[in-house]
Design brief:
CATH topology of one domain: Pdz3 Domain
Radius of gyration: 24 Å
Order of helices and strands: HHEEHEHEEHEEEEE
CATH architecture of one domain: Roll
Helix content: 10-25%
Low-confidence stretches: 1-16
CATH class of one domain: Mainly Beta
Mean pLDDT: 90
Number of strands: 10
């Protein structure tokens, strides 16, 4: 482990009830980690991009010497330009982008323009597309992998240090997950027409008002 870092996954003070002290320690560790943490995705003009890792090249049978960033998803102006999910973005305005850091730098250079040309790799072919903005192109926004809890199980093949990509803690995401919250069924009028298939007596789920 790097000098100056402590194993916050096994902090005895936290386990003994020193939660506040542990959170302070966790904050200090994350403050240092965020200086060197790897970027995991970028967003720009409707495209979502990922680092083009060796693992992705193997999974999608891409050349090992291919250099660029993976287009994970397209919407808005990128979709209209003709770029597809699965393309590899090679360059922006004739300047190569081998990683997300370079990609963000190139979009920053063009942020006040309203259009630009990009090159992508698609199934062995290099293709050129023009992206037009509704106003200005703006610069790409980047993210790291999400914050994880100390001691979390690894759901991916990578077995290096978790802190190469993740900060540690539970303060960076919305809690609870709104998709896991089921709101109570609304009050309905007696004799109201059923808007869904028969699921049994209405009063089993709804408060009935006269």
């Amino acid at each position: 482990m790097s000098a100056g870092f402590v194993n916050i996954a096994q902090n005895p003070t936290a386990m003994a009830g020193g939660g506040d002290a542990f959170l302070v320690q966790q904050k200090q560790v994350n403050k240092e980690l965020i200086k060197t943490i790897k970027l995991s995705e970028a967003h720009w003009q409707g495209m979502e991009l990922l680092p083009l890792s060796t693992e992705l090249k193997q999974k999608f049978n891409m050349p090992m010497d291919l250099s660029g960033v993976m287009v994970d998803e397209v919407t808005l102006n990128t979709l209209l330009a003709g770029i597809r999910g699965g393309d590899v973005l090679l360059s922006v305005k004739e300047r190569p982008v081998a990683n997300l850091e370079q990609f963000q730098k190139e979009t920053m250079r063009l942020r006040n323009k309203n259009k630009t040309k990009v090159h992508v790799w698609r199934k062995g072919q290099t293709m050129k597309f023009k992206i037009r903005a509704d106003n200005i192109l703006g610069m790409a926004q980047v993210e790291t992998a999400p914050m994880i809890m100390a001691g979390a199980m690894r759901p991916h093949p990578y077995r290096g240090p978790c802190t190469s990509c993740h900060l540690i803690g539970d303060t960076a995401t919305l809690k609870p997950d709104p998709d896991g919250i089921i709101l109570p069924p609304p009050t309905i009028q007696a004799g109201a027409r059923m808007p869904h298939r028969d699921r049994g007596p209405c009063e089993a789920c709804h408060v009935i008002i006269q």
